[in-house]
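Database export, one record per block. Field names are fixed; values are copied verbatim from the stored entry.
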Amino acid sequence: MKSTATSIIISGILIGAAIVFLSSGSNPRDAGIVGTNENVYVEGDTQVIEITARGGYSPQLSLAKADTPTILRVKTSGVFDCSGALSIPAIGYRNNLPFSGVTDIPIPPQKQGTNLLGTCAMGMYSFSANFN
C-alpha cells in the first residue's frame, strides 16, 4: 500500500514537471526570447519578414514595422515535422508548406503593438512578429 501511494505521488510530480517544461516555450515572448529585425527587409513598398521552418521556426521572434504591407516569407528545406503545417489564426491562414521551397504569405498592415503568432499544426513550435 505504501509503495502504491509513493508511486502515485512520484508520477504526479513527474507529470506536473513535464507539463510545466513543455508549456514554457509555447510563446516566444513568454519564454524570454530576444527578438530580431535582421530577417526583416523592404522590397519596393513591401516589408518582408523571412523565417525558416524545419524542426521549429527561426527566428522565433521578429521585430517589424507597423502599418506597412508585409509578406511573411517562409523557407523550407526537407521539412518532415509538424512545422510544415503552418497556422496563423489572426489572419485566417492555415496551410501545409512545401517539403522544400519558399512560401510568401501576405500579411495586411498591422497596428502598432500587434503580436502576430504563428504555430505548427500541433502547437509544438511557434514564432511571432511584433509590429512597432
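Remark 1: The chain has one helix and ten strands.
Remark 2: The first helix runs from residue 2 to 23.
End of record.
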